[in-house]
Amino acid sequence: xxxxxxxxxxxxxxxxxxxxxxxxxxxxxxxxxxxxxxxxxxxxxxxxxxxxxxxxxxxxxxxxxxxxxxxxxxxxxxxxxxxxxxxxxxxxxxxxxxxxxxxxxxxxxxxxxxxxxxxxxxxxxxxxxxxxxxxxxxxxxxxxxxxxxxxxxxxxxxxxxxxxxxxxxxxxxxxxxxxxxxxxxxxxxxxxxxxxxxxxxxxxxxxxxxxxxxxxxxxxxxxxxxxxxxxxxxxxxxxxxxxxxxxxxxxxxxxxxxxxxxxxxxxxxxxxxxxxxxxxxxxxxxxxxxxxxxxxxxxxxxxxxxxxxxxxxxxxxxxxxxxxxxxxxxxxxxxxxxxxxxxxxxxxxxxxxxxxxxxxxxxxxxxxxxxxxxxxxxxxxxxxxxxxxxxxxxxxxxxxxxxxxxxxxxxxxxxxxxxxxxxxxxxxxxxxxxxxxxxxxxxxxxxxxxxxxx
Length: 454
Ligand code: HEM
Known about the structure:
Elements: E1 3-4, H1 21-26, H2 28-35, E2 41-46, E3 50-55, H3 58-65, E4 72-73, H4 76-80, H5 94-104, H6 110-114, H7 117-130, E5 136-138, H8 139-156, H9 162-184, H10 188-192, H11 196-221, H12 229-235, H13 246-277, H14 279-293, H15 307-319, E6 326-330, E7 334-336, E8 339-341, E9 346-349, H16 351-354, H17 397-414, E10 415-419, E11 427-429, E12 433-435, E13 439-444
Parallel strand pairs: 1-8, 3-9
Antiparallel strand pairs: 2-3, 4-6, 5-13, 6-9, 7-8, 10-13, 11-12
Helix pairs in contact: 7-8, 7-17, 8-9, 8-13, 9-11, 11-13, 13-15, 13-17
């Protein structure tokens, strides 16, 4: 038995003319979690008539993102990211997407990523070494600079100084914030208004284009000097046999920077926030890195031994999943659960809300890395999806897991990051769910000499 989508439940709290736009703009995280309680499929109304279908069931999500994925394009959120120009991987569709993904995949494949470990460590090391005893660190910014530096060094062979790196970071942030606002309130006229936000987004876009033009120019000037993702993109040919234009390569590089930096950085920031609040977890992390590294620099051989570190990362990706909203749009009529979704239906879901569902995770708001011990009951398959699922799954998952492990071990082997007394940190859902402010005091560590028990 299937039913017309128009008979699906509409979330409570709809206000005439604006629908459910208000809580989506002002109370996002609480709202997406509340939506979870209204059933596997629920409808939101934005503005006078725009409808968004929210999927709350992990089984239906699996079906949508795997078996039925050919019936969906990436939808609202990603339409707005086309601000970058070109059709980079995260927004490309159909055959061009598949072709580009196949081309880029080897550079981000698990085995290949092992080769980046030394670059990851060497890129993050100067930032960590520059910290001073009792210095107050803006942890999010530090992590963002490190994560962006790692993507740029490993994939583009580019190592900007801290000043220019900060400008790139700020520009990506500005462009993304504008894209998200436009996705939340999809009224095209608002995007064209010469508002301060729209003007800043345009300027930031220009800065990004100019920076990347420099990277491309370097690669063109010395084609034999580089063996990285940028040189790979320069060899690609499109459907017509033409090489990618500079504009297309720029879009791809910007997209990688945007998709790969903030997500990893906020994961690191939340991880250090959590262990600072839990001295026993911090002790176990320190014990593990001291024992495994034994004062040596981290190499690929150490990674599989850092099992507690990995559980900390998985737990951070569960409780503080960077993605609080993702979208799709049906390209043809398709059945999902009991409903028929007509072509053009906007769909959204929240990995953040799903990872906090008490039906899937016992005591879901508790940060408990040991829930990932194999002897403990595991969530159902498809209920833990920090990197998405199916043909649009994150292409940088292995890169990011490796990088998070490297940076966590690097910091933990030298520093304790302690909260600044009297500060509170809350989650802010923008393009990722990032900490509001996270100022922490750097304190040099004295190493433990005991054997790890974790
Ligand atoms: C903790 C870190 C990260 C998280 C949580 C994350 C999460 C995700 C998710 C959920 C998607 C799928 C979105 C969807 O289905 O609509 C995605 C796609 C993507 N991610 Fe990541 N990501 C992370 C790190 C990275 C890194 C380090 C890179 C690159 C170096 C990267 C590059 C991409 C790209 C290019 C896509 C689009 C893939 C496609 O559409 O084929 N991500 N990411």
